[in-house]
Design a protein that fits this description.
Blueprint (H helix, E strand, L loop, with lengths): L19 E5 L4 H12 L3 E6 L2 H15 L3 E5 L7 H8 L6 E4 L4 E3 L7 H29 L3 E5 L12 H22 L4 E6 L6 H6 L12 H13 L6 E3 L2 H12 L2 H12 L5 E3 L7
Parallel strand pairs: 1-2, 1-4, 2-3, 4-6, 6-7, 7-8
Antiparallel strand pairs: 5-9
GO cellular component, one term: membrane
Family: Belongs to the short-chain dehydrogenases/reductases (SDR) family.
InterPro entries: NAD(P)-bd_dom_sf (IPR036291), SDR_fam (IPR002347)
């Protein structure tokens, strides 16, 4: 049966705390930050990442501290038919989906193994689409729920030396904006969260000199921005975390590419191909 759009409701019920949230890339960084913040609000959690030991450590801590149920699902988001596979591993409804997992490749485009680009697109793009498709229909059927797609301020401009990553995040931004419009007609909140530079494992590998665009934030600050947006009666299609980052993203969108790209090329200082496959990457 095809669900027909209905007029926007005059008032949206705040979905927080969601009874049960699924978070990808939950073993570190922003994903772990979402897990801790939502557990403190009383939400049960499904934690998804590749690092099983780290997930269990976080789950045990949150259960002991907040009395919430934390299911651990070690999962590789490059898996074929990942939406169906992960949905089959989750017992019960999901009220909030946070598509947070991702990674980046850095360096001249021609220097990186094509297999790495396939994995990057699978995690940063395909997983967002397939997991949204797997869990959103049930939210629409119930008439409530939420989806947060985590993008990046790199979505607002191309980035030499991170060409595939910035293009992937631009896809997430555009996809999330369309999802915002379609989902809200059924009482479901969906929006894109765009962090700027964030103190995660990525910068432990490539160093702070890899970017000076915008201002650094902690994962907690990014999570707070996302949850404030989720709490709002009228959530916008996308939210940039940090005022300076929002200004930088806006200006980058206005700048002529022939001027902007050489500047970004100098900023990024690509000297070698670097691949960091952490659970959250925010250059």
């Amino acid at each position: 049966m095809t669900l027909m759009p209905r007029p926007f409701p005059s008032m949206r019920r705040s979905p927080l705390p969601p009874p049960r949230a699924l978070i990808t890339g939950a073993s570190a960084g922003i994903g772990e930050g979402f897990a801790r913040a939502l557990a403190a609000r009383g939400s049960d959690l499904v934690l998804v990442a590749r690092r099983a030991d780290r997930l269990r450590e976080i789950a045990d801590e949150l259960t002991a501290s907040h009395g919430v149920d934390c299911a651990v699902v070690p999962f590789d988001l490059t898996t074929q038919n990942l939406g169906e596979e992960l949905r089959s591993l989750v017992d019960g409804d999901i009220d909030l989906l946070i598509n947070n997992a991702g990674f980046a490749t850095q360096g001249p485009f021609v220097n990186t193994d094509p297999q790495e680009y396939r994995r990057e697109i699978a995690v940063d793009v395909l997983a967002v689409v397939e997991l949204s498709r797997a869990f959103l229909p049930a939210m629409i059927a119930r008439g409530h729920g939420g989806v947060i797609n985590v993008s990046s301020t790199t979505a607002f401009q191309p980035v030499p030396s991170m060409a595939v990553y910035s293009a992937s995040k631009a896809f997430v931004l555009s996809f999330g904006q369309s999802l915002w419009y379609e989902a809200r007609q059924h009482g479901v909140t969906a929006f894109t969260l765009a962090p700027g530079p964030t103190r995660t494992e990525f910068f432990d590998v490539i160093g702070d000199s890899a970017t000076v665009v915008g201002s650094f934030q902690t994962p907690g600050q990014v999570v707070a921005t996302g949850l404030r947006a989720l709490d709002r009666r009228w959530t916008p299609p996308h939210v940039v975390s940090g005022r300076r980052n929002a200004v930088a993203a806006h200006l980058a969108g206005l700048a002529p590419r022939r001027i902007l790209l050489p500047i970004l090329d100098r900023v990024m200082h690509p000297t070698m191909s670097t691949d960091h496959r952490g659970d959250r990457v925010h250059p």
